[in-house]
Design brief:
About 85% of the residues lie in helices and about 0% in strands. With about 150 residues, the protein is mainly α. The protein has one domain: Ferritin, core subunit, four-helix bundle (Ferritin). Helix 1 runs antiparallel to helix 2 and helix 4 runs antiparallel to helix 5.
Length: about 150
């Protein structure tokens, strides 16, 4: 089956979100190992698992659109994880530094999802998936802001 132009544009959007979720999952796994507070570690582990689920969902829709999904994150994501390593190593409060980076990352994810959501409005299944993932990320952002307040 041939991929249509509309499907190609949708696939490109989904590929970007898939790559961002690979980056987020890897980032959560990385900082989970550096976290000092066990409750924070558990929350980070849950977020890594959630982003893994997001990648599975996006992968499935991309395949349903007769395309081959990307299989890993971006160079920018790798660079950001390297920066987090440096920042948490130099920080006197590792958990606070982790929470700050989580807030920054989740804000970027919400912005990306909002931007991409506007472009997929004509595909209801895709729209619903992207919207629901965005809501979950917004919830995580609100949670991490509260965690930062008590850290």
């Amino acid at each position: 089956m041939e991929i249509t132009k509309a499907n190609k544009e949708t696939v490109d959007i989904l590929q970007e979100l898939l790559q961002k979720n690979y980056d987020a999952e890897a980032g959560y796994k990385q900082i989970m190992q550096k976290a000092e507070n066990n409750l924070l570690k558990n929350w980070l582990q849950a977020k890594a698992k959630q982003r893994g689920q997001f990648t599975n969902e996006l992968d499935g829709i991309i395949r349903n659109l007769n395309a081959t999904p990307v299989t890993d994150g971006s160079l920018l994501g790798s660079a950001h994880r390297a920066w987090i390593d440096v920042k948490t190593t130099l920080s006197t409060n590792t958990d606070e530094a982790i929470l700050e980076e989580c807030i920054r990352g989740e804000k970027a994810s919400v912005d990306e999802y909002e931007k991409q959501l506007e472009k997929v409005s004509s595909f209801s299944d895709v729209n619903n998936l992207v919207y629901n993932q965005m809501v979950s990320i917004k919830t995580a952002l609100n949670t991490v802001k509260r965690l930062e307040d008590i850290a």
